[in-house]
Every structure is written in structure tokens, then in C-alpha cells.
Amino acid sequence: MARMRVHELAKESDLDSKDLLARMEKLGIRGKRSQSSLSDDETERIREELGVGDQRAVTIGEERVVTAESGQ
User: Taking the model in full, what pTM does it have?
Assistant: First the structure.
């Protein structure tokens, strides 16, 4: 995974960079600015805290295609 910058993660999370930096301070990630790069571990910790990341897809039922020939 490529290193990510703070402002990129903020944009991905729909947050302002200042808000993300404040949350990072609470996690103990200090001394960063919006242009600072984050390690993979830091990015993962922040995503877990924000609840952002891989969302599992849940399928309920099946999709059917109805054509004019088969009815309504």
C-alpha cells in the first residue's frame, strides 16, 4: 500500500483536515500536518477509529430480470 497523506485521508473520510488532525492527536499520532504522509499502520489505526475502510457487502435475496416475454 502506498503512503497516504493526511489531507487525502481527510478527503476520503469526508472530514476537514483540521478535524482529522484533532482525532489523530487523541490517538497519539502527533506532529503531523495536512501535507504529512502516514505510515500504513497509522492509516489503518485512523480508519478503524473513524469506522472507514472495507465495508462488507451484504446481499439480501437475489436479483431477477423480468422480460416482456416472461410476464410481469
Answer: 0.67
